[in-house]
Design goal:
Length: 569
């Protein structure tokens, strides 16, 4: 009819009969209005339903926190008589985080104080492996390609083997793995008394205490400071754009701090460094309060970018690992480092100072096959236990390291249950156990305590006390405790292999570190103030620095510690 000219088009683009344009247009408008009213009613119904659910969620979360204050929270109500898949789907549709009812019940405060739990005297033994089942396909070796970027962290190497044992570490806890008694307290220690510190403060440019505290701790890292301050990086300095400005600005700050050490006077002005960091990362371009840990990672990444000379890149590996090497942790470690340094300079001070490797071991619960992953990190973020901790409770740093190395369980109710673990060569989900442990150790070990935690749409700061020693041994948390590997050895081995350059360094590491710097945070999730406690080497004592103010330190504040800088003994 349209081709014959018997139909016309109204101003809305609808095809209408030439003889009956107006009635059809009115009918269309009526239908559109009916659709609009129906959709509006549906939206109102959904809004009222979600508002009612939010009330239930707020009340439940208030009970979890032991507070009557109502806050928006991403928790699905456990009172609904629905199965777990329905609850997870509902949480995903509402854009909130799903919390299992069992965990919520654990978080609820007990009616009566629980009986004290006696410390476990025996070693916790890993669960026995399940008898292999022939139907489960054998895992084949897989290699994950490196990221095409010089930024940190690095790629990973994956290998698969069938170990004689499950390979998981076990720890002898001072207390139950799931119970953290408030009465536990590690021995406290104090800073050695001394006179006026030799250090000098940094001027606060406006909410820049987070940057000043990190700079003071980095200055206490003697190997890193000497290379930056002595301008050993100049021959590898990269040009183009704004490259080179961050490392040069950092060197300027370090030189000024050294020149004025012990003299007092006007604090150092780090405005040039602040401006160059903001130009490379817009998160730090303004003067709002930022996270010290994020600033640290961004700063060392930009320093690495400025001196990441392609001359010291490794060529791509032409031959994959042999079958027998795929079961060897040491071979996997070298191969992972080789992939990392395909895009990162072997001469850069950043990986030579802060780089460490972790090993992630995953064991299939159906057939017992294992998968190993070697990752490169520039520090560790230590999680707190899932059990809520009160402000007056004390937990030690070794407990947080055990929590980091804690075995993780993947449970699959069926082959299509995404809560399980899916191998690359298996086309279905299975039960599996995974554990991450340390492998190669760095010169400087940075530990960030994950005090800031989110519960769906709600976030809070964990303010409990964390005790930490002046000397720390990480050997119990390494996959190869009997033969600890040094990252510096790996880097020098690759330099000799490719460039016939590098010094002889010990292959093994003692795994013992001494504390040289602490970043403290006083406040809450919405704001606060950063300070630093640093080792003052000329005075053989400790200094407490709050921006411009520098004074002798008395003792560490275990409730404020946020970042710990440990130097290899």
């Amino acid at each position: 009819q349209y081709m014959k000219g018997e139909l016309g088009e109204d101003d809305r683009g609808h095809l209408t009969s030439k003889d009956d344009d107006k009635p059809n247009l009115l009918e269309i408008q009526k239908n559109e209005e009916a659709d609009r009213l129906r959709h509006e009613a549906q939206r109102q119904e959904v809004f009222e339903k979600r508002s009612a659910e939010a009330v239930v969620q707020n009340n439940m979360f208030a009970a979890v926190l032991g507070s009557s204050k109502s806050s928006p929270v991403g928790v699905v109500s456990p009172t609904e008589q629905k199965d777990e898949k329905y609850l997870r789907l509902q949480a995903k549709l509402n854009g909130v985080q799903y919390v299992p009812p069992a965990l919520v019940q654990q978080l609820l405060p007990p009616v009566a104080p629980p009986a004290p739990v006696e410390p476990a005297a025996s070693e916790i033994v890993a669960p026995a492996r399940v008898t292999p089942i022939a139907q489960c396909p054998t895992l084949a070796p897989t290699v994950i390609a490196p990221k095409v970027s010089p930024s940190l962290p690095s790629p990973a190497v994956v290998a698969v083997s069938r170990p004689a044992t499950d390979g998981f570490l076990t720890f002898r806890n001072k207390q139950s793995e799931s119970t953290y008694a408030a009465s536990y307290s590690a021995p406290a220690w104090s800073y050695p008394s001394a006179g006026k510190p030799s250090r000098i403060g940094l001027r606060n440019l406006g909410n820049t205490c987070f940057m000043n505290s990190v700079l003071q701790c980095l200055y206490s890292v003697s190997s890193f400071r000497s290379d930056i301050e002595g301008e050993k990086y100049l021959e590898d300095l990269q040009f183009g754009g704004n490259k080179g400005r961050v490392v040069n600005s950092l060197a300027e700050v370090f030189r000024n701090m050294s020149d004025r050490s012990g003299l007092g006077g006007v604090p150092i002005d780090p405005s040039n460094l602040k401006r160059t960091i903001g130009e490379r990362n817009e998160s730090f371009s303004g003067f709002s309060q930022q996270d010290a840990s994020e600033l640290f990672l961004s700063l060392i990444n930009e320093v690495h970018t400025d001196i990441n000379s392609k001359t010291w890149f490794l060529p791509p590996s032409k031959t994959p690992l042999a079958a027998e090497q795929q079961q060897n942790d040491y071979a996997l470690s070298i191969d992972s480092a080789r992939q990392y340094f395909r895009l990162n300079s072997l001469k850069s001070i950043v990986p030579r100072t802060f780089m460490l490797q972790t090993r992630s071991l995953t064991v299939c619960g159906k057939c017992g096959n294992s998968s190993k992953v070697i990752n490169t990190e520039m520090g560790l973020e230590l999680p707190f236990p899932d059990t809520p901790l009160k402000q007056n409770e004390i937990i030690d740093i070794e407990t947080l390291l055990r929590q980091y190395c804690k075995k993780e369980r993947f449970e699959a109710t069926g082959p299509n249950d995404s809560q399980g673990y899916k191998y690359s060569r298996c086309n279905h989900y299975v039960n599996a156990d995974r554990q991450t442990t340390l492998f190669s150790l760095p010169k400087i070990l940075t530990l960030t305590l994950k005090r800031f935690k989110s519960y769906g749409n709600f976030a809070d700061k964990i303010s409990c006390c964390v005790s930490f020693p002046k000397e720390l041994s990480v050997a119990p948390f390494c996959a190869n405790e009997s033969n600890l590997l040094s990252t510096d050895f790996i880097i020098n081995l690759l330099r000799k292999e490719q460039f016939d350059s590098g010094s002889d360094v010990p292959k093994s590491s003692a795994g013992k570190y001494r504390l040289v710097g602490i970043v403290n945070h006083r406040g809450n999730i919405h704001g606060g103030h950063y300070t630093a406690d640093v080792f003052d080497k000329p005075r053989n004592s400790w200094a407490s620095i709050s921006d411009e103010v520098c004074k002798a330190a008395d003792k560490p504040d275990r409730a404020l510690a946020y970042m710990l800088f440990y130097e290899l003994s």
